[in-house]
TrEMBL record:
Chain ranges passing through the membrane: 31-50, 70-87, 133-155
Annotated keywords: Membrane, Transmembrane, Transmembrane helix
InterPro entries: DUF1757
Organism per entry: Orbilia blumenaviensis
PANTHER family membership: CHLORIDE CHANNEL PROTEIN CLC-D, PROTEIN CBG20488
Protein name as annotated: Uncharacterized protein
Length: 164
């Protein structure tokens, strides 16, 4: 599992290093596909349901909307973590981080989503059209996390069940 290989984990939760970073990054990463879904629905509905004329091609519209949605999602994820964990003891942060790293299903989902993020960022940079590079990369990364999450759901509902 790539996540376990990249992030240090300990044998016991109370010894977990980087616990603040791990938990915050996890929640922020998990908010990206939700933001991508919402950020994709808006331009798609505007274009296809409301039949509004578009200035950009649909790919550029999606990248533009998702670049904003990704930044908003990251902010919301950070605020959610801060709000939920405010005033909590370090052992609670360590325990939650340790459990995330030890949960096979969660690390598989994170791996799929992270792979989608990387591929999406590259594809967004290449296919951004008239958009600035940062919009292509960030928008593609957001869309990639959604694609990775959906790929995980399909994989888990078909091939992943054979592993159990």
């Amino acid at each position: 599992m790539a996540l376990n290989g990249m992030l240090p984990t300990s044998d016991y939760a109370e010894d977990q290093p980087l616990f603040h970073f791990i938990l915050t990054a996890h929640v922020m990463h998990r908010t990206l596909p939700i933001g991508a879904f919402i950020s994709s629905a808006i331009p798609l509905a505007s274009t296809f349901v409301l039949r509004r004329a578009t200035v950009y091609p649909i790919t550029a519209l999606l990248l533009r909307s998702n670049s904003t949605g990704a930044l908003v999602s990251l902010g919301i994820g950070g605020a959610m973590t801060l709000g939920r964990m405010w005033g909590r003891e370090d052992i609670e942060w360590k325990d939650r981080s340790w459990r995330l790293l030890r949960n096979t299903g969660q690390t598989q989902l994170d791996d799929f989503s992270a792979a989608g993020l990387a591929v999406g960022a590259v594809l967004g940079a290449v296919g951004r059209g008239p958009l600035p590079l940062w919009r292509g990369v960030v928008g593609g990364a957001g869309l990639g996390t959604l694609a990775g999450t959906l790929a995980f759901v399909v994989w888990k509902s078909t091939l992943g069940k054979k592993e159990q």
